[in-house]
């Protein structure tokens, strides 16, 4: 049976349109260091330095462990990374000795710093031109499990629909975030292609819904033959050539 022409392309963001590892490491360390330094200065002005240094008593590893515990205790929130981070920080700040009201304010301030640093992503050089061209032929959307404030990036203008799947309690591979995106785009799975780097979170759920999928596999070893409708790419820059080969 001949496939009908594609109407829409849906994109993962992190490690698909940019390399996320470096900026995520800087963001993780940076917002915690900012909290440590800013809190110490605030406590000093209040004459409360006897509490000590926050990151010495509760290092970054304690914060990471608290997030894992929260994700286990609240499975429906496991993909809502902003909520998990805020709750973890608030709890640690209370343990440090702050009243709940101050702990809440400082956790929110730290997350503002987090989101500012998170915006330091650098899309691959080809991405903007590529999305400009694809946007003239297809309806474009993004589906991410991350908590990047995409609306604050110029790149957001390319996407008619942007879904933060974790915040809707349906992180990939949950099919609901894909179905919501397709509904908002006004298209059906068989007329859409999803592009992402994760086999488990991007490719399999798209395939199960009947979408085509472009797997940004990088230099991952070649294994068994891919299922029908799945196309392997090394880099996002190869997507336009793939669409041309498919007659799209």
Describe the 3D structure.
This protein has 248 residues and is an alpha/beta fold. It has two domains: 8-19 and 122-245, Rossmann fold (3-Layer(aba) Sandwich); 21-118, Up-down Bundle (Four Helix Bundle (Hemerythrin (Met), subunit A)). 47% of the residues lie in helices and 11% in strands. It has helices spanning 21-45, 54-57, 60-73, 81-96, 100-118, 127-135, 175-185, 199-209, 239-245; strands at 8-11, 139-144, 161-164, 192-196, 212-216, 230-233. Strand 4 (192-196), helix 8 (199-209) and strand 5 (212-216) form a beta-alpha-beta unit.
Keywords:
alpha/beta, Four Helix Bundle (Hemerythrin (Met), subunit A), six-stranded parallel sheet, 248 residues, 9 helices
Shape: elongated
Taking Cα atoms only, what radius of gyration do you get, to the nearest Å? 21 Å
CATH architecture of the largest domain: 3-Layer(aba) Sandwich
Name of the top-level CATH class of the largest domain: Alpha Beta
Give the strand tally. Answer: 6
Low-confidence parts? none
How do the helices and strands follow one another from N- to C-terminus? EHHHHHHEEHEHEEH
- Largest sheet: number of strands, sense, barrel closure: 6 strands, parallel
Portion in helices: 40-55%
Write out the strand line-up for the largest beta sheet, numbering strands in chain order: 3-2-1-4-5-6
Task: Provide the β-strand percentage band.
Answer: 5-15%
CATH topology name of the largest domain, in short, is Rossmann fold
Helix/strand structural class: alpha/beta
User: What's the pLDDT, averaged over the residues?
Assistant: 95
What would you give as the CATH superfamily of the largest domain?
Answer: HAD superfamily/HAD-like
Distance between the termini: 16 Å
Count of helical segments? 9
Tally of distinct domains: 2
């Amino acid at each position: 049976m001949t496939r009908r022409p594609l109407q829409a392309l849906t994109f993962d963001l992190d490690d698909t349109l940019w390399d996320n590892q470096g900026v995520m490491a800087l963001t993780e360390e940076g917002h915690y260091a900012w909290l440590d330094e800013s809190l110490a200065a605030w406590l000093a002005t209040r004459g409360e330095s006897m509490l000590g240094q926050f990151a010495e008593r509760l290092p970054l590893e304690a914060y990471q462990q608290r997030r894992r515990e929260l994700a286990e205790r609240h499975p429906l929130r496991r993909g809502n990374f902003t909520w998990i981070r805020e709750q973890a920080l608030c709890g640690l700040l209370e343990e440090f000795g702050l009243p709940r009201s101050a702990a809440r304010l400082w956790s929110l301030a730290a997350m503002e710093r987090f989101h500012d640093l998170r915006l330091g992503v650098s899309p691959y050089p080809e991405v903007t031109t590529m999305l400009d061209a694809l946007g003239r032929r297809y309806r474009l959307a993004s589906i991410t499990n991350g908590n990047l404030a995409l609306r604050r990036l110029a790149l957001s203008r390319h996407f008619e629909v942007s879904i933060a799947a974790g915040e809707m309690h349906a992180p990939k591979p949950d099919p609901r975030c894909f179905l919501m995106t397709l509904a908002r785009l006004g298209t059906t799975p068989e007329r859409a292609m999803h592009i992402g780097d994760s086999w488990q979170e991007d490719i399999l759920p798209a395939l199960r819904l009947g979408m085509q999928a472009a797997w940004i596999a990088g230099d991952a070893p070649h294994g068994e033959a891919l299922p029908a409708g799945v196309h392997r790419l090394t880099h996002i820059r190869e997507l336009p050539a793939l669409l041309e080969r498919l007659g799209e």
